[in-house]
């Protein structure tokens, strides 16, 4: 914001100098016609104005370059922070759907996690230690206006333990707590979560066409075409690849319906508007 204000001030100064120079030049031309000579002091004044204009324009250009460089540095810094956050979250699990009151009944999120493991994966404790480094609700403060319960973050000793639990979750399909469905997912930074969600439609379409899509850590798309596996770090690279593969591009853009499904014949019946 401060740099933008400085640029605007410099541009105003340049405009003022140019206007003054134009007026002075017109005055000199008038005097020259009358006297046939130009005073040396007036010539020096014009030269001084031209130097001021040149200096101001150079300052504007330098500030513009600095802003671009700062923008690049900010982008790199943001990416580095995101990578650090994801690295720190790598051993974490996120539990969604457990009521807040359970914290009091079982004396903390750590005991809730142990209860979930016992209920859903009784043999897992025999295969690996269930040590927990940290367990807490997020966000830290409870918002009384919030309709849903806060998520529980479980920090395991390492990423291998977390991956083993997630594998068991995928194999079971539906995880429960006291018989009620809950979810156990990896814990990602908000930016990474947004990047992963951006692949949702693409993955669904590719899965319908047997392209074996997979979402790799932290937000990379993997697909297998003609026996060859390709990995894309972001949508920009995937879009570029589509331009070289017309067949795949048609699949993505057209979003063909799943084979075997035919539209049901429409029946003529009176439509009753739903009450809201």
TrEMBL record:
<dbReference type="InterPro" id="IPR035300">
    <property type="entry name" value="L1_dsRBD"/>
</dbReference>
<keyword id="KW-0175">Coiled coil</keyword>
<dbReference type="InterPro" id="IPR043636">
    <property type="entry name" value="L1_RRM_dom"/>
</dbReference>
<comment type="similarity">
    <text>Belongs to the transposase 22 family.</text>
</comment>
<dbReference type="Pfam" id="PF02994">
    <property type="entry name" value="Transposase_22"/>
</dbReference>
<feature type="region of interest" description="Disordered">
    <location>
        <begin position="255"/>
        <end position="276"/>
    </location>
</feature>
<dbReference type="GO" id="GO:0000166">
    <property type="term" value="F:nucleotide binding"/>
</dbReference>
<keyword id="KW-0832">Ubl conjugation</keyword>
<feature type="compositionally biased region" description="Basic and acidic residues">
    <location>
        <begin position="255"/>
        <end position="265"/>
    </location>
</feature>
<dbReference type="Pfam" id="PF17490">
    <property type="entry name" value="Tnp_22_dsRBD"/>
</dbReference>
<feature type="domain" description="L1 transposable element dsRBD-like">
    <location>
        <begin position="191"/>
        <end position="253"/>
    </location>
</feature>
<dbReference type="InterPro" id="IPR004244">
    <property type="entry name" value="Transposase_22"/>
</dbReference>
<dbReference type="GO" id="GO:0010494">
    <property type="term" value="C:cytoplasmic stress granule"/>
</dbReference>
<feature type="domain" description="L1 transposable element RRM">
    <location>
        <begin position="90"/>
        <end position="187"/>
    </location>
</feature>
<dbReference type="GO" id="GO:0005730">
    <property type="term" value="C:nucleolus"/>
</dbReference>
<keyword id="KW-0547">Nucleotide-binding</keyword>
<dbReference type="GO" id="GO:0032197">
    <property type="term" value="P:retrotransposition"/>
</dbReference>
<comment type="function">
    <text>Nucleic acid-binding protein which is essential for retrotransposition of LINE-1 elements in the genome. Functions as a nucleic acid chaperone binding its own transcript and therefore preferentially mobilizing the transcript from which they are encoded.</text>
</comment>
<keyword id="KW-0963">Cytoplasm</keyword>
<protein>
    <recommendedName>
        <fullName>LINE-1 retrotransposable element ORF1 protein</fullName>
    </recommendedName>
</protein>
<dbReference type="InterPro" id="IPR042566">
    <property type="entry name" value="L1_C"/>
</dbReference>
<keyword id="KW-0539">Nucleus</keyword>
